Amino acid sequence: MWQMQLVTPSIILIRFVNEEAFAATPGIGSYPLLLVLMDWQRGDVLGAFDRYSTNFLKLIEKCQEELKYAHVSSNRFPCSIQHCQQALVTYQRMKDALTDARGGSDRETRRRIICQLPYSFSYIPVETPYLDPSMFRFDDRLITLIERTKLSDSEVI
């Protein structure tokens, strides 16, 4: 087992890779991968998928909100591809760009999208888009420029 993610309170997504993949220099992406959906309370395996699975990609596209924001049970401001038209358009553009970059290979596109799972976040997103830190950017270069600038007393920032 390499990574695990909670999808619902009772369902987890587990990513399995070979033991040799951890010490591999070319990268973990070249080794076999198995993604398993499991009901951990009952001990049932709900599905097992490889990195090229068409059915798993469809499941990802239908359940983006649950996969990305499993901890938010009642999200009043959904922002994933099944609820937000702009997010869907952006996702389709990304998917088309991946397909075009690899010479039109749907298989490679599926592999690249599926290999991103399970999602990991460095912060916990909030339920309201007005306080979401991902919508704001802190530009270090601008702060450095302001700090280095010598202003006279009459100049206003």
Automatic annotation (TrEMBL):
GO CC list: cullin-RING ubiquitin ligase complex; nucleus
GO BP annotation list: positive regulation of proteasomal ubiquitin-dependent protein catabolic process; protein ubiquitination
GO molecular function per UniProt: ubiquitin protein ligase binding; ubiquitin-like ligase-substrate adaptor activity
Stretches assigned to coiled coil: none
Pfam family, one: Det1
Classification via InterPro entries: De-etiolated_protein_1_Det1
Superkingdom as given in the UniProt entry: Eukaryota
Protein name: Uncharacterized protein
Source organism (scientific name): Wuchereria bancrofti
The organism's taxonomic lineage, starting at the top: Eukaryota, Metazoa, Ecdysozoa, Nematoda, Chromadorea
